[in-house]
Structure formats: structure tokens, C-alpha cells
Amino acid sequence: MAISVRTVALLALGLIPVLLLPEVGTVLTWLGLVVVLVVVDLVIAAPPRGLEIERRPLGSVRLTEPAESVLTVTNPSGRTMRALIRDAWQPTAGNGQNRHRVTIPSGEARRTRTALLPTRRGDLQADLVTVRSVGPLGLAARQASITVPGHLRVLPEFRSRRHLPSRLARLREMDGRSAVNVRGPGTEFDSLREYVIGDDVRAIDWRATARRADVVVRTWRPERDRRVFMVLDLSRLSAVRLGEAPRLDASIEAALLLAALASKAGDRVELVAIDRAVRARVSGTHGPAIMAKMADALAPVHPTLVEPDWTAVTQVIRDRLSQRSLVVLLTALEPGAIDSGLAPVVAALSKDHQVVLASATDPDTDLLRQARESSADLFDAAAAERGELERRAVATRMRRVGAEVVERLPDDLAPALADTYLALKAAGRL
Amino acid sequence: MSGTATDRGAPAAGAPGPSILALGRRVDAPEPADSAPERTNRRTVIVVVLAVVVLILAAVALGRGGQSRSDIPLAPNNPEPEGARAAAQILGEHGVDVTLVTRTSAVLAQDAADTTLVIVGADELNSDQMTALAETRADVVLLGLGYASFEDLTSAVEVEAGGTRAARPAECADPDAEAAGTIDTAGPGITGLSRVEICFPFEDGAGAYAVWEEAGRTWRALPNGFAASNEGLALEGNAALVLRALGQHEQLLWYVPDPNDPFTLGDEASAPQTFFLPDAVVYQLLVVALAVVLWRGRRLGRVVVEPLPVVVRAAETTRGRGRLYRRAGAHAHAGAALRAGALARVGARIGLPTSAAPDQVIESLVRATGRSPDELEHLLYGPPPTDDASLVALTQALDTMESEVHRA
């Protein structure tokens, strides 16, 4: 139950009789009177527990885009309900005005709409729906909190999609180069056609020419249907906060941009999010549908505070890949990577596949490295410098076994990874 | 509930093994339900809180009405050595109705002919109070007097120095004093007009006790309250004197003046114009305050918590390492790291291989910066810094060298 401001006012009004007749009895009488009125009001108020509340499914929404939580409240009791309804969501769902004053006549239903503006990726949960049913006198209310399950899936923002047009243009340039009919790395046989003046004579297919009266040349196109296998590391180091967001968010942005680019280029994209077990997987989808599927799969993944299990990662990759593929490890490149078993895994994978190691770096470390305010800062700068050197040594070791290392600030990671992909594709190293 | 416990204890076969999430709750753990026992618990808490509030209110109400302890000297409810609870209790056991009053208006309200009025520390009253009290119908006992003037109350007696504490004989005709025989007391003493009977005289002629008739009432004065105190009551004839003096009538008003008494004489001297809230109004205000608490205190549903991500910043480990260097005073170590870092950047800029030998490095840098080889060798491969000052100097030199290379 809850009492309203009217009850307080009524009790304050009791000061008049108490001042006129200053006895404890007056106080008790007035208090008793108010209590009786409150109880009567409570008894007459429509029972909130009897309400039937339905939540319309919210589906999913991209981060920073608005959503709306709609409740349908039906009053099956024989009394009109005057109620204050609170549709509570977890704070990052960004619900502004979530309290609704509704009057529901007996047997009817009303809708409440709560605007949401999510500020975090993931599955945001609705909390209890609280109904405060006010009595006809407005003195007191019966209150109940009812579980109405609901969740809003907030997809990754995919901020890096603004880099997509420029990368697609580069991809088309690479396509256009096939018109030159030059066979080279990164191209595969496309078709045979008649020789026209200007074609490279080295492209003439003599066997086909022999079968026909005309001279026939072979044409080439960039390799297609290569496999791009992305591994999203969800372990301890992906939980680290870089600037305002965890490292995982930068990795997800990079994965989404690469997926968009690679699927446009005709490659087959697969993704596995893994800590000590596989948490999300996208595979077997082609074309534009993959973006929706990826966003949906990546929405609810969160970092876990465990050590990565690189042997399990190798196993997953070996199970999925038989031919040479591009393996993208979205993880953290830390001096401890040698100990955590990343280096041997990269070395082993590089024998069969092209490995790219993408890692978002910390903007704060750069600031620390350049700090010169006091002698204490110099020690921090020295520590940052030492960390850099160690990280660089690890990167060098990775490159030596044939892996590509992409290390960038969180915002630059996605375009840099896309550029690496394009460079590898152009060089025919997929 | 048991089902929930099992679910948490053993994850279903095939589900990923137990892991610590960065979030507060496991992904596969069931949502904690707002179960019925929890609601009942909340209700119990509310009932208990209400009961405690009622009990506190009752205790406060009783405390205001009942005779609680005080620590004012010569108050009838003070059990300390300088209090007078012993005297009040003995009088009560012998059928005297002792009433403690603290306000002049209350004294005037309860004033009656066959009553004894004890005024403790009468000289500290203001003139309005004294004027009002001079008109009472009750017999007056002035208990404990200082050297301040109390002319408005009575002009029959005055306080004098008296003497040190000793047993003193009555040496007067007052029957109460004679019955007491000797009392053990000290100064101040009292002197008065000729109609005033002075008893238990000190060496200077002032007495420790005085009795006189004024306006048809008997006045008594005991300028030193020691005889009536819990400590002094049992000595010599103190008890006899005090109990006889105070026990003249069945009604005894024991007036312990409250220094904050707002009493003043108005146009009508008999109508005390006091301003204080009646208890009932205070109670009503308390009830209203409680209602405000209940009104504002009831939330519309519970507080929703956010399963927060990890808040550790990536640079924490670097900072920790820096602090470690600092605490260990590892100037040499820090200097080496700064040199290596600067060298790595400069080397990348001028195209030196990472495996270049010192000679080669210096040779290239001489070309890039135009400095002397000795200077560069001292900077890059010289002795390690040993204190803050040399570390600062080294860092500045390295920064300058780096900027020169980048400009080149």
C-alpha cells in the first residue's frame, strides 16, 4: 500500500481540532478517523494483482536508435481502476518518462508507451511492472509489482559502416583490373572469349583456339569464394576498457566491417565468439543476410573474466576449415600473449592459413608515454615505453611466422583491418 | 526455490561449463523471481518498524509525564549527592504529596493556602517571577540562596557571609530548630529584621536558618541547601530540621526554576502569558511527520540495477608498473626503457634495423642530427640515471634529440 499527499493534508488539517481542544484524545480520534478512511479507500480500490498485463515483443534495435516499450493493461475486476503504472527497464535502456497515469474502466484495456533510447549493446531486460491502484477517495493506493518478462535486443552500432563505401570502391578497382586480362596472384580463371586487338597474346588459350576457328583468350577475375574465418576473443583482455568502451566493442566493429566487405567481395564469412567455450557462431550464410545475422549474434556477447583457451580455438578452426583460408583473430596483443599460448597457436595456424591478428590499443598508454609533468610521470612513461617495446617484440615474433598484425586505436581498428584484408586479397594471399 | 538451487549448482549437460562473467549474473542462470516469501518478509519488516515507532512514541510520552531523573542540585528527583531525592522520598512516605514544578505559571496555578512551597535558588529568579511569587498563599521555604538580591520576593532577610562547615547548635526559640538540636552546615548565613528568628548562628551573627511571619504566611530560609541534600541529610540534626520545615502541610510544591521560563507579568499579573505548544499539538505534528515519511518513503517499484561491465582501465597495469619502478627507485631501469623507446622510434624514422649495433646507430644519428658522436653516445649509451634530477635531464635530452630527428 501507499498513502497519498491527501492523507498527509488530512492529518495536517487535524491540527485545527487539536488546537481547539488540546487533548491526546483529539489526536487519537482524528488519527482513527483518517485510518478508517484510508482503510475504506484501500478496500474499495481495484486490486492491482488481478490486472492482466501483456508486453508487445520489442524485437531488436541498433544502438543509439529509439525503441518503444508497449504494455497492454486489461482490468478484469468489476471496478474502475485509476492507476499509476511504472514500466521499469534497466538504466541503460534509457527510459525517460516511464510512469503512466491511466484510468481503466472495468473489463477494458489500455496501452502505455514508454520510449527507450538504449545506450548499451546487449539484451536489455525489462524489470517489474509496478501498478499503484488509487482508491476513489485518492487517500491511499494498493501497490503491486508484477513480473512481465521482456527484453530488447540492442544490436552493435556498426559505426564503422561509414568506412564501407570507400573500401567497396577499392574492391571495384581491383575487379576492374581483371579487364587487363593479366594473370597474377589473387586472380582465378573466369571465362574464355574471342580475341580482340589489344589483348595480351600471352592470354591466348591455344587448346581452345585449336578447337574453334577463332583465336580465344582466357580472362581472369579476382579470387572469389575464399573463406574468411573470424575468431572473436571474449576472454579477460577483451573486458579491458579502452577510452569509454571495452576492447570487445572495437573488435565487434572491426568484425562487422570486415564481414560487410568480404561478403560483398564474394567471400564466405564465418564468425565464432569464444572464451573457454563457443558463445556465438555465424556460418553458412551468404550475401546481405549475413549482416543481420552477425549483428544479432554479436548483440548479446559480453566479455568474461577467464583466460582464453587457445587450444580450443585451434580445435574449432581445424574443425571448420579444410582449405587455406583467412583466419582473423580479434584479440588483444599483450606481452603476456606468449604465456597465454597465443604465439604457438598463431605459428601453428600460419602453416595452413593466412592469419591476421587484430588488436585495439589503449589511447591512455600513449598519453602516459608522453607525460612529462613530474618525475613520477617519468616512471609511468618508462613503464609505458617498456610495455610498448614488449608488445612490439611480440608483434615482430608473430609477423616472423607469417601472420599479419593490425594494432590500432579502437576507432581506427575497423578500417585498418579492412585495408589489410584488401591488401591481402590484392596480393592473392587469401 | 530448490529447483533454482539445483539449476545454479549443476549446469545442464552440454551447456558451457561454469565461468565468471564480467556481468553480475550468469547468462544461463535463472532470473531471480520476486517470490511470495520475499513479499511476506517485506511486510514483516514494515510491521516491526511500525511497532518500534509506536513503542518509541509511547516511551517518549511516558517519559514526559513520569518523574524521570534530573541532575539539578536540590531537585527532588536527583539521586546524586547534591540532589534532594532522599528528602522528597521520606516526605512522600510520611504522607506529604510532593509535586515538582519548574515554571512560575505552574506554581501560581497550584498555589493554595495549606501548602508548602519550596523555592530552590530563589535569588536567581527575575523580578517578575519574584513579584508574582511574593503574593502566594502557601507557606514558603527558601532552599539554597546566593548573594544576588531577592528584594522583590521578600525584604525581611538578607544573605551574609556566614562561616565554614561545622556542627552548630540551634540557639533560638523556633520549635523545629530546637527539635533538630544541632545541624551540620556551612555558609552563607542569613540576617534579618528583628521579627525574624535567626537560628544556628555563625560567628559573625548570621544564622544558617531563619523563620518569620510575613503577610499571614510562615517563611523559612535555609540559605545553604547542604542540609537538605542527599549527602548532608543524615548528618547531625539536618534531617529533623529539613523534614519538619518542609513537612508542615500535606501538599508540597517543590519549585526548581527553569532558567528558560518565559514568564513575565502582563497587564493582569495573575494571567501568566506563556507560549508553549500543548503536548497534543506536538503529537499531532509527529503524526503528520510520520505520514510525510510514509508518503515520500514508498517507492513505485524497486530500484533497477544495471549489470555493469568491468570498469578497469587498460592503462591500470602500466600505471601499476610505473608505481613499482618509482617505489623501487629504479631510475636506471626507467632510464633504460626511455632510451630504448626513443631509439626504437628514431630508428624506425631513419631506417635503422632493430638489430643495428651501437656504432652504426650513432653514425646514422650523427648524420641525422648533426651532433657530435661523443654527445650522442653519452646520451644513448652513457651511465644510467641515479636520481630524479638525472632522469629528468635524460628524458629532456632524449625528447630534444627525437624532435631534431623528426625535423630532419
Automatic annotation (TrEMBL), chain A:
<protein>
    <submittedName>
        <fullName>DUF58 domain-containing protein</fullName>
    </submittedName>
</protein>
<feature type="domain" description="DUF58">
    <location>
        <begin position="192"/>
        <end position="399"/>
    </location>
</feature>
<dbReference type="Pfam" id="PF01882">
    <property type="entry name" value="DUF58"/>
</dbReference>
<dbReference type="InterPro" id="IPR002881">
    <property type="entry name" value="DUF58"/>
</dbReference>
Automatic annotation (TrEMBL), chain B:
<feature type="transmembrane region" description="Helical">
    <location>
        <begin position="45"/>
        <end position="63"/>
    </location>
</feature>
<feature type="compositionally biased region" description="Low complexity">
    <location>
        <begin position="9"/>
        <end position="18"/>
    </location>
</feature>
<keyword id="KW-1133">Transmembrane helix</keyword>
<protein>
    <submittedName>
        <fullName>DUF4350 domain-containing protein</fullName>
    </submittedName>
</protein>
<feature type="domain" description="DUF4350">
    <location>
        <begin position="76"/>
        <end position="244"/>
    </location>
</feature>
<dbReference type="InterPro" id="IPR025646">
    <property type="entry name" value="DUF4350"/>
</dbReference>
<keyword id="KW-0472">Membrane</keyword>
<dbReference type="Pfam" id="PF14258">
    <property type="entry name" value="DUF4350"/>
</dbReference>
<feature type="region of interest" description="Disordered">
    <location>
        <begin position="1"/>
        <end position="20"/>
    </location>
</feature>
<keyword id="KW-0812">Transmembrane</keyword>
